[in-house]
Structure formats: structure tokens, C-alpha cells
Amino acid sequence: MRASQFSKQSRGLTAIDGAMALIVILLMVQIWLLSATLDGYLAGHSEVALPGALVSGVLFAACAGLYLFVDRLESRAKDEDPQ
Amino acid sequence: MPSKQQAPPPLWREEFSVFKNDERYVNRRQLTKFLTLTSLAMFAGNIWILIRSKLRGKAPELPVVAVAKVGEIPVGGVKLFPYPHSGEQCILVRVGEEAYAAYSQKCTHLSCAVFYSQESGDLVCPCHEGHFSVRDGSVLQGPPTRPLPAVTLERRGEQLVAIGMTNTGAD
Predict the structure, then answer these.
(1) Which of A38, A75, B21, B36 is 20 to 30 A from B54 via CA?
(2) Are B97 and B144 in the same domain?
(3) Using the beta-carbon criterion (under 8 Å), do B42 and A74 form an inter-chain contact?
(4) B85 and B114 in one domain?
(5) CB contact under 8 A, B39 and A70
(6) Rounded average pLDDT over A20-42
């Protein structure tokens, strides 16, 4: 019983670590995207602003989704193991 | 005797978990929250750029200013003049008998003042050895990545007049 609970928790932690790694990668892409869009805008290419904002929005939505996933996993783990 | 109802956990236990597993979960969740908020800030930055680009619209009309008289400067000579406003210095170069070119004197790298080098025939930034073509203001070498803003010149009788600018980053 305790062993299975520990294994469940361990799986939960692995999932959270994976989600965090994904968020970090998405964030790095987003930082690059912001700097590239800013560079284009300052060079007078206003047409890059809209696709930049759209893609950044999608990346943010993905990050928010992963955060909710982590949050849900954590609450479930707490419910299962109220201590 | 009524059974004693289970009291809710005290606030300190909710706020400061003493269980190691909980602590690991909370730390991860806090970091994830921070990363997500950073992502939101990046998105807000992109939205700000989008709003600025929509508001920028059409570039304002620039003044028409007499810069020099035809033949006032020798071939290979230069004249500095303020354009489009008094604080923004530009450089006029006579590159041939009937050919003139004028650019903003502010280097597009770190805003040092460029000068015309007769030896190389380029506009040179002394700070980091950036070279710009005197024909079109494009970057020939050095750290700048954008061309010099060019002043559009027009000959009106015996006067050379500045009527606008290109490559300013606002067109």
C-alpha cells in the first residue's frame, strides 16, 4: 500500500518535472520571439508584430495549460495523501 | 457523548508545510507559476509592440529645409546641418560634380556621430569602426546592422533642399 502510494507520488513528481522542462523550453522560445519581433519593429518592419503576438499568445496558452496541469496533479496528490 | 469533530488544520500548517513531499510539490508549483507569469510578461511585450505598430500609422510630414547652395561645398567636401529638427544633426556630402548625398549623422549602432572619410570614400563611425556606403547609407562593415537614415534631397534652382527621410525605422 505504502509502496504503491510512493510510486504514484514519484510518477506525479516526474510528470511535474517534465511539464516544468517543457515550460522552460517554451519560455526560451518566447523570449527569442520577443527580441526578434522588437528588432524587426525597430527596423521599421511593422508587419512582424501581428504574427509575433499570435505565436506568443499560443506559447503563453501552452504554458498556462501546463501550469494548470501541474496544479491539478499537485491537488490530486494532496487529496490522496492528506497526511 | 457526541464524537469530537475533526478540527481543520491550523493556518501555519497550510502555509508552511513541514512534510518533505509537500514541500517539494509546493516549490515546483511556485516555480511553475513564476515561469508562467514570465511567459505572460513576454506575451504582454508582444502585444505592446503590436499596439505600437498599429498606432504608429503614417509617418508625419517632414519640413522642407534649404540645406546648402549648389557648389557651396567642393567635391568630397561635407556640410553638417540639422534635420528634421534642431537637435538631429545630418551630414551632406558632395560625392561628384552634380551628385550629393545626405544622411543622419547618428550611427545606427550606438548613436556616435559618423564622418566622411575621403580615403575610403565611406561614412565612418569612429567608435566601433562601422562603415556605411555614401551611395545609399548601407552597412559595409562593423557592428551596425541597419543602414543610416537618408535625407531626401531636391534641387530647387540654386538651392539644395531636404524634403524627407528614408530608412528611419518609422516608414
Answers:
(1) B36
(2) yes
(3) no
(4) yes
(5) no
(6) 94
